[in-house]
Design a protein that fits this description.
By secondary structure, the chain is mainly alpha-helical. 76% of the residues lie in helices and 0% in strands. It is built from 3 helices and no strands.
Length: 68
C-alpha cells in the first residue's frame, strides 16, 4: 500500500498552514468591514465642512447670500 500522504507530509504541512492562515485573515477582514462605519461625529463634521465650502464658493462667485 502506497503512503503518498506520509511521503509528502513535509510538503503538505506548510501548504495547509498557509491556507488556514489566509482563510482566517479573510474572515477577520470581513468581520472588521461589517462592524466599521463612519461615526456620527465624523459625518456631522464632514457635513459642516461641505456647507462651509459651498458658502465660500458662493461668496467668491459674487452671490454673497447664505445658502438655505
Amino acid at each position: 500500500m502506497d503512503y503518498w500522504f506520509l511521503d509528502n507530509l513535509d510538503k503538505l504541512v506548510p501548504i495547509i498552514i498557509a491556507l488556514l492562515y489566509f482563510i482566517g485573515a479573510s474572515k477577520a477582514k470581513g468581520k472588521g468591514e461589517e462592524q466599521e462605519g463612519p461615526s456620527p461625529d465624523a459625518s456631522e463634521r464632514a457635513r459642516k465642512i461641505q456647507e462651509e465650502i459651498r458658502r465660500k464658493i458662493l461668496e467668491r462667485q459674487g452671490k454673497g447670500g447664505t445658502p438655505s
